[in-house]
Amino acid sequence: MRHLDDLLYFLAVARSGSISGAADQLGVNHSTVSRRLAALEASGDTRLLDRTATGYNLTRQGQRLLSHAIAVEQHWQAINALLDEEGERLSGTLTLTLPPALAGRTMMSVLKRFQDTNPDLRLNLVVSNDLLSVTRQEVDIAIRATVKPAHHLVGRKLCDYHAACYVRRDLLPGPDRRLDWLGDGGEPPAPMADYALRQAAIIPSTTGRLAAVQSGMGAAELPCFLAAPLGELVRLPGHEPRRQGEIWLLYHPGYKQSRKIRAFASFFPDAFAAIRHTFEGL
C-alpha cells in the first residue's frame, strides 16, 4: 500500500541527492529514509533511484514519478493553504497529545505561552498514555517519552530524561537496608542490589508508582522531573540518575504545510529549552 509520506521521502532524496540530506530535511534518521524509500519501490516492484559514488540519481521510472510526486505535493500544499485561509491570526483547534507524566505544571506553563501568543487558536489537550495516531489524524502533534519514535513521523528530540530511585523521606532505610520495592514488572536497577528488597507491589504506571511512593508504600524508580520537585521524596543514597529515555515532539511529514502545526513546531522547541533542565533531571 502506498502512502503520501512515502512520496515525501522520495521527493526529499530526489531533491537532496542523498539519504543523509533527506534525513536532515525531514528531521528523521537515515534508516527511516532508506526504509520508506524501499517500501515505495517494493510497492511498485521497480527501482526509482540508483546509488552512485556521489549520491543518488533518478532512474527513468524515478524521473517519471518525480513530476507526479511534485504535483501531489503541490495539491497537498494547496489543500492546507485553503484550510488555513482564515486570516493571518491562527484560529481553529490544534489537538495535542502527551502522557500524564509530562502534563505537569511546568509543561503547561509553556503551552500557556503558546496559547497567549495565539488567542484565537484553541488547544485540545489529550492527556493520555494511549498511542493516539498522528497518521490517522486523531491528533495533530504528539509529545512523547520514547527511545524509538515511529518511523513514519518527523519532529525533533527535545531532551534526554533521567530516573532515580526515590522513597519518602521518613521511610529511608536503616542499617539493615530493608526496603519495600514498587516495581514496574521488570528487574530493579542494579544499584538496588545493595538493599534487602521486598517486592511490595507491581505498578506499571509511572504516575501510579509516584502516588504509591508518596503514600508510603515503598520505594520506586521514578523520572527525576516528577519526583525531585516533591519535598517529601528523597533519592536513595548511592543511586545516581540514569538515562531512561527521550522526549520528542512529533507530527506527520504531510502536515508541514499546516500553519497551525508549523507555528507550534517552530515555537515549542525554543520554549521547551528554558525548562529542559527540569525534565533532564540531572
From TrEMBL:
Keywords: DNA-binding, Transcription, Transcription regulation. One of its GO terms (molecular function) is DNA-binding transcription factor activity. GO terms for biological process: DNA-templated transcription. Residues 1-59 form the HTH lysR-type domain. Belongs to the LysR transcriptional regulatory family. This is Transcriptional regulatory protein. It comes from Aeromonas diversa CDC 2478-85.
